[in-house]
Design a protein that fits this description.
This protein is an alpha+beta fold and 284 residues long. The protein has a single domain (5-281), classed as GHMP Kinase, N-terminal domain (Ribosomal Protein S5, domain 2). The chain is 29% helix and 31% strand. The protein has helices at 5-13, 38-46, 108-124, 156-168, 220-225, 253-280; strands at residues 30-34, 55-61, 64-75, 86-92, 133-135, 139-151, 172-178, 185-194, 202-209, 213-216, 228-234, 240-244. A hairpin with a 6-residue loop joins strand 7 and strand 8. Helix 3 crosses helix 4 (156-168). The radius of gyration is 20 Å and the shape is elongated. The N and C termini lie far apart (50 Å).
Length: 284
Amino acid sequence: RTVEPLEYYRRFLKENCRPDGRELGEFRATTVNIGKMGFIEYHYFLLGSITTADGSALVKLGNTTVICGVKAELATPAADSANKGYIVPNVELPSLCSTKFRSGPPGEEAQAASQFIADVIESSQMIAKEDLCIANGKLAWVLYCDIICLDYDGNILDAATFALLAALKNVQLPSVTINEETGSSEVNFKQKHPLIIKKHPVATSFAIIDDSLLIVDPTAEEEELATGTVTIVTDDEDRLCSVHKPGGSPLAGAKLQDCITRAITRHKEINNLIDKVIKSIKPN
């Protein structure tokens, strides 16, 4: 495994399985916790980020662990988008999550992941930015979405997208009015309403081994051996939101269609998991 890792994997792949016991199209165990849990708040404090969140979630995809905290703040809308609010995602891959990352400014992989999440938000139209506007040209919500990897073992895009969706479904925004006499905003924290989620995008990633063989939900080791990767994002209506393929081996149309079919099935699995967890949360 150490000297000839690819040959080691090939012996398993010939039998249509992987060293961790999974089939080629099988995901790792997936869990999600939603809400303002002490564990999440504690890690936000450790990482020097926000210590309280208006919505939060923790997702585990095998040994990959990601937390997402959403912080809502008030701001003036942009002049060219007077009736819209903002959504600002940021993915962090700190050195504590893996030896492959270093302390300091965001690396290439973290920047690419942040851009991917921003593209998913736009392409899926999961939130109508008009819904974040409070007063046209005067006041709107800004949703800062901090996605932090605590333990990295591959497939950060799927985990980050899942954590973002789960955290946003947990967001409660306070009621805000503008005093007509003074022009100042008044926030009523006793009256809160959930964020309106229009679409529920889910990402499904595949690694390409030996230029032809597809495996789903790759580990960090499998990503290192891959000759390419592809991530499919679908929504509630089985609509294809985006295909993310950063170079590597080309993918034939038939194999891409297989990926999309598997992604649609995965979407239903994730949606059912989120619904189950939300129903189990007792109201405050």
